[in-house]
Write a structure and sequence with these properties.
504 residues, Serine Threonine Protein Phosphatase 5, Tetratricopeptide repeat, 27 helices, 8 strands, 4 domains, mainly alpha, single chain
Length: 504
């Protein structure tokens, strides 16, 4: 029932949750209509675009302010000239879509029928990696249908991209004509990794013909591709429990980050992630070097100071860690997470008073921050202040009633206080919210053991053993042996229960 302090894997898990929330937001927005989608790596708020969703032809002539300017007339002239070079067809729709395919200037705006492909395009631009992107959702209303064109004889890349085109008489769609969802810059790389890993959407799949490769050849050779490869290798670490495989994945990630930095030495993201890889392998010296370099490149990024503080803590250099926390707070004084992180570092130094002060400040800055109440509640529980701990757990559940882990944590508090009935109710609620949570089944099994309901205990421990393969190890880490558990609880365990708790 012990919970670990947050670490890099927690940060990556949090990022994955943010990634999935973006996808969910788009899907929910589109659930009430028939939509097509477009991804752009920037918002284009600058003049003369002002957030418009533009065709390439409009971009070429956007600074022309003449009232009589007609972009469709320009398009007509281009099509008339292009006919002489199209020997396969005289169909104007086919000609204009071919022009679009080969990168010609047209009054077509690329869209796709697949929101995941739109996300790819919003993230897939090394030049805009530090800019927020956007997803444009256009509802296919009746008055819009004549503007939407479908390729007649689609080529491989058009099929892969599930392309459709919008031909607007003005050459653009205004921001008020569409729904827009922002893609934060910090999620672009994780989103690309998510699309590749879970949906098979990648540069190779999207640009799957020779012309597409030529257009994007520079990207294939860029530092950002090596960075993506490094990030993919690093994320694979958390898919295995085998130490040798973890080590090999970190080494592969470091190799790719090093190539990225050779191509583009001023890429702080590569230094940061290589530093994390070194730190995870126990190479604190190289990790510090990389974080120092990242800070030199991006001195106002508070997150780098937080990550470097972890290395200082790992080295036992608490004074240096505190200096980094102070700098992070100076740069971003309203970031509740910095206080949470520093609070954990105080707990590592057995300073509960300063830890609680930081957790209080985090809650003051962000009173709806459910996790902060859980963290502070855990601290109160460690100090045997059950009433304050329970009040914080109750508040966390009030703020986020769908968080299964919050019920497990409150259940653990009830369990520790000897209130097994309330603990059982919380563990059951956690399972109802997330039936794949092995810890909830494990804890529920132990609660039933305390009540000597062996049938329920066996059932839940069996499920936990399927979902959570280390229950035997966890049991022996806490109690040492079955004999110790029986003595401590004045009970004799049935054989079918002990068989679940004996190492093979």
């Amino acid at each position: 029932m012990q919970r670990n302090m947050p670490n890099q894997s927690k940060n990556l898990n949090d990022t994955l949750i943010d990634v999935r929330n973006i996808v969910k937001e788009i899907e929910e927005k589109a659930s009430d209509g028939d939509y097509i989608y477009r991804g752009e790596p920037e918002h284009h708020e600058e003049p003369p675009y002002y957030g418009k969703i533009c065709s390439s032809l409009y971009r070429q002539y956007a600074r022309i302010e003449a009232d009589e300017f007609d972009i469709e007339s320009i398009q007509g002239e281009i099509l008339d000239e292009a006919k002489a070079y199209c020997h396969e067809t005289n169909d104007l729709i086919e000609i204009i879509t071919q022009l679009q395919h080969y990168g010609g200037k047209t009054n077509l705006i690329d869209f796709t029928t697949d929101h995941l492909i739109a996300i790819f395009f919003a993230c897939d631009s090394s030049a805009s990696i530090k800019e927020d992107g956007r997803i444009i959702l256009l509802e296919k209303k009746e008055e819009r249908k004549n503007q939407i064109l479908y390729p007649q004889n689609p080529r491989n890349r058009v099929i892969a991209q599930k392309s459709v085109f919008v031909r607007h008489p003005n050459g653009y769609l205004g921001p008020n004509e569409v729904e827009i969802i922002t893609i934060p810059a910090r999620l672009k790389l994780p989103l690309l990794t998510y699309l590749r890993k879970y949906h098979g959407i990648s540069t190779e799949k999207i640009y799957n013909d020779l012309h597409g490769f030529i257009i994007n050849q520079r990207f294939h050779e860029s530092a950002y591709l090596e960075f993506h490869r490094g990030l993919t290798a690093q994320l694979s670490v958390y898919a295995t429990e085998i130490p040798e495989e973890k080590h090999a994945a970190f080494e592969k990630a470091i190799e790719h980050y090093s190539r990225a930095l050779k191509l583009k030495p001023d890429l702080p993201e590569a230094s940061i992630h290589r530093g994390v890889a070194y730190f995870s392998m126990g190479d604190f010296g190289h990790a510090i070097d990389d974080f120092n370099n990242a800070i030199e490149l991006d001195p106002n990024n508070a997150d780098i100071y937080i990550i470097r503080s972890d290395v200082h803590l790992g080295n036992g250099n608490y004074d240096l860690a505190m200096e980094d926390f102070m700098k992070a707070i100076e740069l971003n004084p309203d970031d509740a997470d910095i206080y949470i992180h520093r609070g954990y570092s105080y707990l590592e130094q057995d300073n509960s008073e300063l830890a609680l002060a930081d957790f209080n400040q985090a809650i003051k800055l962000k009173p709806e921050y459910a996790d902060a109440y859980i963290i502070r509640g855990d601290t109160y529980l460690a100090l045997d202040d059950f009433s304050l701990a329970l009040a914080d757990f109750d508040k966390a559940i009030e703020l986020n009633p769908d968080n299964s882990n919050a019920y497990i944590i409150r259940g653990d508090a009830y369990f520790r206080d000897g209130n097994f009935d309330l603990a059982i109710e919380d563990y059951k609620q956690a399972i109802e919210l997330n039936s794949d949570n092995g810890e909830a089944f494990y804890n529920l099994g132990f609660a039933w053991m305390q009540k000597q309901n062996w049938q329920e205990a066996k059932l839940n421990l069996t499920v936990a053993n399927i979902l959570k393969s280390d229950i035997v190890k966890e049991f022996h880490n806490i109690y040492g042996s079955i004999a110790n558990f029986e003595k401590e609880n004045d009970v004799k365990l049935p054989e079918d229960i002990t068989s679940l708790l004996i190492p093979n």
